[in-house]
């Protein structure tokens, strides 16, 4: 069973890396690019024979380990 | 118009960072986690008044700028 956890900066948090990519693209002829924000994802394979509810376990991992709740948020997707 | 470009290592390429996260999770009580692979994504806002086909432009950016074709692959999604 595979899940994808998307971790992104909260909308209120500045993303200097994304801004740099955006201005670099604009100065290289991609003038229609309005904004870029970067994030990361984790593809997690869970052994369904492992006992507990796999989705609940991945959600716990996403919340407690993969995300910094001060500046980041996550979204969980089953693949 | 917003697109998300997912960039991940090709399946044949080792992902030591993901392996470290996986073994760390397993040693912290998440024994049912079988594998973890990490990737990144870019949320790109395109001004649709910019002229060219926005999807084709983002695909070109993904292929030529955001992805290292030797070890990475990308997937494009319209949000």
CATH class of chain A: Alpha Beta
Low-confidence stretches of chain A: none
Structural class designation of chain A: alpha+beta
- What do we call the CATH topology of chain A? Mth169, Chain: A
Mean pLDDT of chain A: 93
Question: Going by CATH, what is the homologous superfamily of chain A?
Answer: Phosphoribosylformylglycinamidine synthase subunit PurS
How are the SSEs placed, and which strands pair?
Two copies of one chain form a homodimer.
Chain A: E1 2-9, H1 16-27, E2 33-46, H2 54-66, E3 72-78
Antiparallel strand pairs in A: 1-2, 1-3
Features:
elongated; homodimer; three-stranded antiparallel β-sheet; 2 helices; alpha+beta; Mth169, Chain: A; 79 residues
Can you offer a commentary on this structure?
Two copies of one chain form a homodimer. With about 80 residues, chain A is of the alpha+beta class. Chain A has a single domain, classed as Phosphoribosylformylglycinamidine synthase subunit PurS (Mth169, Chain: A), CATH 3.30.1280.10. The longest helix of chain A has 13 residues. The first copy, chain A, has a three-stranded antiparallel sheet with strand order 2-1-3. Chains A and B meet through helix 1, strand 2 and helix 2 of A and helix 1, strand 2 and helix 2 of B.
Quick recap:
By secondary structure, the first copy, chain A, is an alpha+beta fold.
């Amino acid at each position: 069973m595979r899940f994808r956890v998307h971790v992104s900066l909260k909308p209120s948090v500045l993303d200097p890396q994304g801004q740099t990519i955006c201005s670099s693209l604009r100065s290289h002829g991609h003038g229609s690019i309005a904004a870029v924000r970067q994030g990361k994802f984790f593809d997690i394979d869970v052994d369904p024979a492992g006992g507990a509810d796999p989705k609940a376990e991945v959600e716990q991992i996403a919340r407690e380990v993969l995300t910094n709740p001060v500046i980041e948020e996550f979204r969980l997707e089953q693949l």
